[in-house]
Amino acid sequence: MIVQSILQIVILVLIVVGAALAVWFKDLLASVLALAAASLLVALEFYLLQAPDVAIAEAGIGAALTTAIYVIAIRRTARKEEE
Amino acid sequence: MRKAILFVTFLFVSAFLLLGVAEMRPFGQPAVADMDDYFITNAQGEVAVNNVVTAVVFDYRGFDTLGEATVLFAAVVGILALFRKPKEDER
Amino acid sequence: MSNHGMSVIVRTVTRFVYGLIILFGFYVIMHGHLTPGGGFQGGAVVASAFALLLVAFGSAGLKGRLNLHWLQSIEEVGALAFLALAFLGIGTAFFYNLLANSGGFLFGASVPAGANAGVLNAGGTVPLMNWAVGLKVMTGIAAVAITMLIGSKKEETE
Fold it and tell me: Which of A47, C17, C118, C135 has the greatest number of CB atoms lying within 10 Å of its CB?
């Protein structure tokens, strides 16, 4: 129980770090990858909270599909964020 | 000035979130559990489905799923209409 | 760049992996009434495999593999099948599960109470609705991704 609590705290801190990095990066591809990592960690947290249905949906939609659509969009536009 | 307003907003939102965390019930003990108990007890007998979540999504609350399917259909039709190739006489 | 997809590493890994992802998605849809998951989740997994193919190979590797009209048709068939299954029990109520516990050939078996391994031939309209929603979600999201890739390319060339 203690181990799971510590794991959840680590995962939640990493989610916040991933979200902050997604805002911080000027390279939009790296930003999208940070967002995908945060989304995967959210899916892991859902799994630890005993909601595997939501975890599968979050991993499929949040980590895979939005990343693919963002990558398609970045290919068509500029890769660097303008100052 | 703008940073001060942002900081005050940040403080307010964090205060509300922390208040919510302080008032949170323990994990697995919701305030009202009558509906959950009914689903967990009767889903296997009534719907003959082991996965109670699927029983709720497709049987007890099927109308919600119909709305979700409609939203997805509207999104797909909207994107197909947005990106379609214009015909020659429409330019 | 956009017509030829990504690097050799990405393309090789995609060739190894996308079949397994599609297989897992169909497993999630098929066992939606037994294991965690369901139509929406399995359809999203299969659509993510399609999106991986799109990102890795670009629009050039797509020619002749996925037809946009077929995808749209299958999506509408899934939506109509879902609605028809909902109307199947209209004699009692909308979304009434007519086939569950009927003892019939089509998903009519009963399951024992308590924890068990599950019966595949059970659930009435729930597995059929899983397939309908799964087909709808996978083809719908794949159509969205393909349309975004192809449609934005057209504007670039004009």
Answer: C135
pLDDT of residue B31: 82
Domain annotation covers residue C2: no
Which residues does chain C have within 8 Å of residue B44's beta carbon, measured at their own beta carbons?
A: 111-114
How is chain B split into domains, by residue range? 2-86
Contact C68, C143 (CB under 8 A): yes
- pTM for the model stands at 0.85
* Contact residues on chain A for C29, CB-CB shorter than 8 A: none
Q: Are C68 and C50 in contact (CB under 8 A)?
A: no
- C1 assigned to some structural domain: no
Å from B31 to nearest chain C CA?
25
Inside any domain, residue C3:
no
CA distance C22 to chain A (A): 12
The subunits that touch chain A, with at least 3 C-beta pairs less than 8 Å apart, are C
The sign one gets for the Cα dihedral C4, C9, C12, C15 is negative
Count of all residues that appear for chain C in the document = 158
Of C48, C69, C37, C54, nearest in space to C133 by CA = C37
| B68-89 pLDDT per residue, tens | 999 999 999 998 888 877 666 6
The shortest CB-CB distance from A61 to any of C38, C44, C152 is to: C44
Q: How many domains does chain C have?
A: 1
- Domain extents in chain A: 2-76
Position B24 scores a pLDDT of 85
Q: Chain A partners of C152 at a C-beta cutoff of 8 Å?
A: 72, 76
∠ at Cα C140 (B57, B87), nearest 5°? 150
**C3 is written with which tokens?**
């017509």
Q: What is the pLDDT of residue A10?
A: 95
C118 Ramachandran zone, left/alpha/beta (phi>0; psi -120 to 50):
left
